[in-house]
Design brief:
Layout: H1 2-11, H2 14-32, H3 38-49, H4 54-79, H5 90-99, H6 103-136, H7 141-152, H8 155-158, H9 163-177, E1 180-181, E2 188-189, H10 203-225, H11 244-248, H12 251-266, H13 272-286, H14 298-322, H15 328-339, H16 346-351, H17 353-381, H18 389-408, H19 411-429, H20 435-457, H21 469-501
Antiparallel strand pairs: 1-2
Length: about 500
């Protein structure tokens, strides 16, 4: 504990605090602009850290990470466009709240519960990093396959109203995710002899097209139908826009979502986009009013933002304790360690304990700075809704094109957002939910890769997957998760049919 207190004192020095303010502020900007990301912010600033000491360099990178993940909620709420993949689920209820004039409340809820989710995860990072990371080290591709299959079955929960439409949406995501070179053997699939399709579709252009371009097309259609569209009525807010009673009503949602984010963050390669959707699904399943999810309630925003910020702490656990990056951003941060001649892993806690606890302290302080900066920017953000559509929409399109191009520096990504925008618009017209298409697109590569690796380990025997206790638990749970909604749907249809055949009395 003395080491941590000394590290915290060093972090609170004026130079370090100013560096964190800079990192968090830049991170928020990168997170709030669709197409830019935390990984991109860290990639740009990584060479700069070479001129700094190890403590200052990693402090800056951690601050960028925290700011960018939290900043994604700004465009998710105000524009219904996820600023980062981690803020996908924030769109589901945050944007409807904004349309109801509660943009300030939605942002306030997101900011506070982003802070609390991060706080819980960073506390866990300090106390349970080594044992938790060692536990997940036991996971083979078989366990990862079972977990991702279980996550994929959550499509049924994301389908509001019709399970068939939810499954159709999920199939669209799976089909698009299989385009390109297959994992393990490198076979070309569905490329139509187009070289650009060999690399498949990247996640960020997919999200930009599916959410941003679709939203632009919908808004343009509404504007052309009624050129006298009134700006959204914005309610005045005090503080963060919600009451203490509303805050305490979310305590279990906060805890559950933060634990989901923490656990998903620890598992390498899954990331905040999955954790936020799974936390949203869990909140919907445990809610007394699941039918209200997607209509604009704070429960959905709390679940998403608590989970994606808790994922930061979770992703840092395997990085620091085992030297294994938890996601793409921590893979970039691993480069920061290597630049300064440090190798993350168990020995780092012995040889450079002060440095490790300095990172822990930087996480806590940067998290507090994020809360301060976003609170004071709250009333500025909501003014964005007052900008006329004919000015805002072209700016959004330009930002989307630039963001999509900057992912891999190829025009194909910028062009593909138009395809995804058209697909999203057609899905909107057909009343197909977008969330299942996103979840299946994210999970498809993970499922396929781990399935094939698992089959290689078991010499082609799928039955051997059920011999692993953890895999067995998740696979059985996945089967139950698929069967239960089908049984409920069948019973409800049968009850309706029985009700219509009854002869009215009198």
């Amino acid at each position: 504990m003395d080491i941590f207190l000394n590290a915290l004192w060093d972090i609170l020095q004026p130079a370090s605090v100013m560096l964190m303010f800079l990192g968090v502020a830049v991170g928020i900007v990168f997170g709030s602009i669709p197409g830019l990301s935390a990984a991109m912010a860290i990639a740009l600033f990584l060479p700069i850290t070479f001129t700094m000491g190890p403590n200052a360099g990693m402090t800056l990178l951690v601050s960028l990470y925290i700011g960018a993940i939290s900043g994604g909620l700004i465009s998710a709420v105000l524009l219904n466009i996820p600023g980062t993949p981690s803020s996908i689920a924030t769109c589901f209820d945050g944007a409807p709240m904004a349309r109801q004039g509660e943009a300030g409340k939605a942002l306030g809820v997101g900011i506070v519960f982003s802070f609390l989710g991060g706080l819980l995860a960073f506390t866990a990072l300090i106390f349970i990093a080594p044992p938790l990371a060692k536990f997940t080290l036991r996971f083979s591709p078989i366990e990862y396959f079972a977990i991702t299959v279980f996550a994929l079955t959550m499509i049924a929960s994301l389908a509001s109203g019709s399970m068939v439409k939810g499954l159709l949406s999920g199939m669209i995501g799976l089909l698009l995710a299989t385009v390109g070179v297959s994992p393990i053997d490198g076979a070309r699939r569905f490329t139509l002899d187009i070289d650009n399709l060999t690399s498949g579709f990247d996640l960020l252009p997919y999200l930009i097209g599916l959410f941003a371009i679709t939203e632009v097309l919908i808004a343009a259609e509404q504007f052309s139908a009624d050129k006298h569209v009134e700006p959204l009525a914005l309610k005045k807010i005090k503080g963060f826009g919600f009451t203490l009673a509303e805050f305490f009503a979310q305590k279990w949602n906060l805890l559950r979502s933060s634990l989901i984010g923490l656990f998903i963050g620890i598992l390498p390669g899954i990331g905040g986009s999955t954790s936020s959707i799974l936390a949203y699904i869990a909140a919907k399943k445990q809610s007394k009013y699941p039918e209200k999810f997607g209509t604009g309630i704070m429960d959905g925003v709390v679940a998403s933002e608590s989970a994606n910020n808790a994922t930061i702490g979770g992703a840092l656990i395997p990085l620091l304790a085992l030297g294994i990056p938890g996601d793409g951003v921590t893979a970039m941060m691993l480069g920061g360690f290597l630049i300064h001649g440090l190798t993350p892993g168990p020995l780092l806690f012995k040889t450079s304990a002060e440095f490790v606890y300095g990172i822990f302290a930087a996480c806590l302080v940067a998290n507090m700075i994020m809360l301060i900066l976003e609170f004071f920017g709250l009333r500025i953000y909501i003014k964005l809704l007052k900008v006329p559509k004919y000015i805002l929409l072209p700016i959004i399109v330009v930002m989307c094109v630039v963001g999509a191009f900057s992912v891999n520096n190829r025009m194909f990504d910028a062009e593909s957002i138009l395809l995804f925008g058209l697909i999203g618009y057609l899905m909107y017209k057909a009343k197909l939910p977008l969330a299942p298409a996103v979840l299946s697109f994210i999970l498809c590569p993970l499922i396929e890769t781990n399935l094939r690796r698992g089959l290689m380990l078991t010499e082609g025997s799928f039955l051997a997957f059920f011999a692993k206790p953890i895999a067995l638990f998740f696979l059985v749970t996945a089967i139950v998760a698929l069967i239960v909604p089908l049984v409920r749907t069948f019973r409800s249809h049968r009850a309706k049919a029985a009700g219509t055949t009854k002869t009215p009395v009198g």
